[in-house]
Amino acid sequence: MRQSSSPADLAPEPGGARAAGLASTSPAPPDAAARALRGVRLGAVAAVAALLVVAQRAGVFETFGEPARIKQALVELGPWGYVAFVAAYAALQPFGVPGTVFIVAAPLIWPWPTAFALSMAGTMAASVVGFSFARFVARDWVARRVPARFRAYDEALENRAWLTVFVLRLVFWMPPMLHVFFGVSRVPFWTHFWGSLAGYVLPLLATAYFGPKVLDFLRGAPPAVWVGMGAMTVAIALVAFKAQRSKRGAGRSAL
Question: With the C-alpha atoms ordered 165, 166, 169, 170, is the resulting torsion angle positive or negative?
Answer without folding.
Answer: negative
